[in-house]
């Protein structure tokens, strides 16, 4: 299940990615994002969140804006620092460049962003905390209880369907 911009709040990358356009003909790019190795490479001990298993990917449109996204939700029994260390190392090894360094928003201990071209398409990869405030729970998507027991986080890749440049800035 993919939670789109209406389902998750607090991720600054959503506004950065939203480009003008449509999802028409984006199927190949959606599958390219779905297959990114880091979406399926959590830190040791991390588990998928019940009800949100596997990588979800889609192209979505909202008021003339479109974005491609693929994400995977996890909970880790360790600290946010362990999750951050894992993804900084794994992203560097996979050719991702860190976005600008900025302090994490209050109550969001994990807030990472990386950039890379994926098959010629500028792409961002974000890793950020899932809390009741960032999850944006709704009637159809209640806040999973296991996210309160550890470091819940979402790994998400995003790109513009037309291949327009995007970055980690708001």
- How much of the sequence lies in strands comes to 25-35%
The portion of residues assigned to helices is 10-25%
How far from one another are the termini? Answer: 26 Å
Q: What spatial form do the alpha-carbon principal axes imply?
A: globular
Mean pLDDT, rounded to whole units? 83
Task: Give the beta-strand count.
Answer: 8
Compute the number of helices.
4
Low-confidence stretches: 1-20
Class by SSE composition:
alpha+beta
Total individual domains? 1
Series of secondary-structure elements, N-terminal to C-terminal: HEHEEEHEEEHE
Described by strand count, sense and barrel closure, the largest sheet is: 8 strands, antiparallel
Report Rg: 15 Å
Polypeptide structure, described:
This protein has 4 helices and 8 strands; from the N terminus they run αβαβββαβββαβ. Strands 1, 2, 3, 4, 5, 6, 7 and 8 form an 8-stranded antiparallel sheet that branches. The protein has helices at 13-17, 27-34, 80-93, 132-135, and strands at residues 19-20, 47-48, 56-62, 65-76, 97-98, 111-118, 121-129, 151-159. It starts with 12 loop residues before the first helix and ends in an 11-residue tail after the last strand. A hairpin with a 2-residue loop joins strand 6 and strand 7 (121-129). It is an alpha+beta fold. It has one domain (13-159). Helices cover 18% and strands 30% of the residues.
């Amino acid at each position: 299940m993919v939670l789109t911009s209406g389902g998750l709040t607090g991720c600054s990358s959503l506004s950065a990615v939203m480009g003008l356009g449509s999802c028409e003909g984006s199927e190949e790019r959606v599958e390219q994002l779905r297959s990114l190795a880091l979406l399926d490479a959590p830190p040791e001990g991390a588990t998928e969140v019940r009800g949100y298993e596997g990588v979800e990917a889609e192209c979505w449109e909202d008021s003339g804006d479109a974005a491609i996204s693929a994400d995977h939700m996890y909970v880790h029994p360790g600290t946010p620092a362990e999750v951050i260390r894992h993804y900084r190392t794994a992203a560097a090894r996979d050719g991702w460049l860190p976005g600008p360094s900025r302090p994490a928003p209050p109550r969001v201990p994990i807030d990472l962003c990386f950039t890379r071209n994926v098959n010629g398409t500028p792409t961002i990869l974000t890793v950020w905390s899932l809390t009741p405030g960032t999850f944006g729970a709704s009637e159809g998507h209640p806040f999973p209880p296991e996210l309160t027991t550890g470091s819940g986080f979402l790994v998400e890749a995003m790109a513009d369907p037309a291949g327009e440049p995007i970055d980690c800035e708001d």
